[in-house]
Design a protein that fits this description.
The complex is a heterodimer of chains A (219) and B (264). Chain A is of the alpha/beta class. Chain A contains four helices and 15 strands. In chain A, helix 1 runs parallel beside helix 2. Chain B contains twelve helices and eight strands. Chain B has one domain: P-loop containing nucleotide triphosphate hydrolases (Rossmann fold), CATH 3.40.50.300. Chain B starts with a strand and ends with a helix. Chain B is an alpha/beta fold and 264 residues long. Chain B has an eight-stranded mixed β-sheet, sandwiched between helices. The chains are: A alpha/beta (219), B alpha/beta (264). At the A-B interface, loops of A face helix 7 of B.
Chain lengths: 219, 264
């Protein structure tokens, strides 16, 4: 068997190897090439001491079973220690469209971490913190700190029924109420970034944000 | 089997010890068998407030270290036969006792007493963990200040994540005139943040300070507004429905009474 194409790229990083797997080809072809590379062409670098391995699947949509198949192939080599299997598509899909609901109360000193978008039913008290990779919507009073888009997503927003936070953060931008925002009645509002500056607006104006919201226009 | 109630606040100086002493005494006034437990090891002062300092022979740490039996360490109150106190040690620190030991002591006390009132130290460290270990219920004391409410919120969070469900709230040292002028947080502001059941409000009263210095719980004083508030709290603990005395209304009742007496 000869290698027809390069579906599998193996890269060395400081503390291990990264397997970049093509995300367009058929999964069976991918598996057979992976097997071939492990058993024949790259035998020399894949034997010896234990090596950490990160698998990157690109934007391929994989089921848990398929993921397991890939892992099984790699596991046949005793010295490959699989550290992570990443797939861009699955992560983005879950964070982009879906919104998870959490109910409760974030009290002083408590921190709520969340991956993706969050709808929080309850209050965030002064001294309490919500940290989220996506948007934060609080159905309740936001009196504490909220950090949206913590991984650097500058498009994330923070909205609350009663908008009175001690501090807001979106991506790397930090803002606090009195001196940076114009004074206004605390009501249902949201915060977003415009050219790297935090802006506050009424929730009804959220449509102007120009994001890919599903907009209801009526008939 | 009795009930153990911990009085806690997070912040220091909001009136935990005063509240413990007064609620304990008020329950004893109602004819209940009560034991007060001071868990503030190293900084004990429940005994001072109760005026029992000179009667202490053994303390909490003596019990856990096995130097005496539990009932040898209990100090009987000078006013009530059914009121006892277990003093904390003054020479050790909070780490001298473990939560398990506290749990055993409280369990032992609950066999003999109808109510065990545990006075918790300030802070959220070992002393706090010891104090809540044996408690069935918690009362959080706060004053109408942002700092105290912030700490109370932290404590409520910690209590809710422990075995204690739905702590109750006492707002201490309210000054009706300052609330009216908007200089002090009012009850609604505090309740909105903390979102727990209110079991009582205690007005600021100079008689409380005087009584504490005399070693006499305020509850004994029939003229004190705070005393009435503490007696009401005790009745609520016993399951009575006592309406909250609204400070403004109370003021008007008082002035009406004054007017009445002035006329007669």
């Amino acid at each position: 068997m000869t290698v027809k194409s390069n579906y599998v790229t193996i890269k060395g990083i400081k503390d291990g190897l990264v397997f970049l797997l093509d995300d367009q080809c058929d999964i069976t072809e991918l598996l057979s090439e992976l097997r071939y590379k492990l058993e024949h062409s790259h035998q020399n670098i894949l034997t010896g001491p234990i090596i950490h391995v990160d698998v990157k699947l690109g934007s391929r949509l994989v089921t848990e079973d398929e993921k397991q198949l890939i892992v099984d192939v790699l596991k046949q080599k005793g010295n490959l220690l699989i550290r992570s299997v990443e797939s861009l598509s699955s992560e983005e899909d879950s964070s982009k469209d879906q919104i998870s609901t959490i109910i409760g109360m974030v009290r002083s000193g408590q921190v709520l971490h969340h991956e993706g978008n969050l709808l929080f039913l309850g209050d965030v008290n002064p001294g309490g913190t919500i940290i989220c990779t996506g948007d934060i919507y609080v159905l309740g009073s936001l009196r504490g700190m909220a950090h949206a888009g913590v991984d650097g997503n500058e498009g994330a927003i923070i909205a609350a029924s009663y908008f009175s936070p001690t501090q807001l953060r979106i991506a790397d931008i930090i803002s606090r109420p009195p001196d940076e925002w114009e004074t206004r009645e605390s009501g249902m509002e949201y915060a977003y970034l415009l050219d790297g500056v935090m802006q506050i607006d009424k929730i009804t104006n959220i449509v102007r944000l120009g994001r890919d919201f599903k907009v209801f226009k009526g008939v | 089997m009795g009930e153990a109630i911990v009085i806690t606040s997070g912040k220091g100086g909001v009136g935990k010890t005063t509240t413990s002493a007064n609620i304990g005494t008020a329950l004893a006034l109602q004819g209940k068998k009560v034991c007060l437990v001071d868990t503030d090891i190293g900084l004990r002062n429940l005994d001072v407030v109760m005026g029992l300092e000179n009667r202490i022979i053994y303390d909490l740490v003596d019990v856990t270290d096995g130097r005496c039996r539990l009932n040898q360490a209990l100090v009987k109150d000078k006013r009530f036969d059914e009121l006892y106190m277990l003093p904390a040690a003054q020479t050790k620190d909070k780490n001298a006792v473990t939560p398990e030991q506290m749990k055993d002591i409280i369990l032992e006390l609950k066999k003999d007493f109808e109510y065990v009132i545990i006075d918790c130290p300030a802070g959220i460290e070992q002393g706090f963990k010891n104090a809540i270990a044996g408690a069935d219920q918690a009362i959080v004391v706060t004053t109408p200040e942002n700092a105290a409410v912030r700490d109370a919120d932290r404590i409520v969070g910690l209590l809710e994540s422990s075995h204690i469900q739905s702590p109750k709230l006492i707002v201490n040292r309210i000054r009706a005139n300052m609330v009216r002028s908007g200089d002090m947080l009012d009850i609604d502001d505090i309740l909105q943040v903390l979102n727990i059941d209110l079991i009582g409000i205690v007005p600021d009263d100079e008689l409380v300070i005087r009584a504490a210095n005399l070693g006499e719980p305020t509850v004994m004083n029939p003229d004190s507004k705070a005393a009435m508030a503490y007696r009401n709290i005790a009745r609520r603990i016993l399951g009575d429905t006592v309406p909250l005395m609204l400070l403004d209304q109370k003021k008007s009742v008082l002035t009406r009474m004054k007017k009445f007496f002035g006329m007669s």
